[in-house]
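Working notes for the structural subgroup meeting. M.R. asked for a predicted model of this chain before we commit to crystallization trials. I am recording the input and output together here so anyone reviewing the notebook later can reproduce the run.

Input as submitted:
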Amino acid sequence: MAVALCALVIASGGTALAAGQLVNGNALIAKQSLSGNRLANHSVTRTQLALRQLGVLPSATLATKLASVIYRSAYFTAVGSYQRTVGTVACPHGTIAVGGGSTSPNESGAGTDFLIDSRPVADGSGWQVTVENTGGAPLQQETVWAVCLPAASVVTPTP
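Returned structure, recorded in token form:
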């Protein structure tokens, strides 16, 4: 019995010694040794990341393009009764038109001018609208609008 009691005391002392020398879990893992699938969700915070080293994330590419949107407008005078007029606006050099349209002073009332066509000009450097005066209204000032983006940021689909 004395031998068993002595063995129990020695075993307990060894366990206590081992417990006193435990190390922090972070010291057991070498730096840059874990792959992303070994990290728990939300365990890495913003303060632990070097955001400047990430560059532009793929999901932010569109936002970068949208930050460079340029709007252009130009006035043109619509022709007299029962005639059509074409108005155009140019995008700045190095940009192309990706959208556009027209506004009219008669939009709020029973106007007689109607938008017939709205499209980019042939080379994409601006926007063109065609307006028709279908009544007896006098000449009116119309506005043509263009939405322009840097040409390098626009992907043209291949047929």
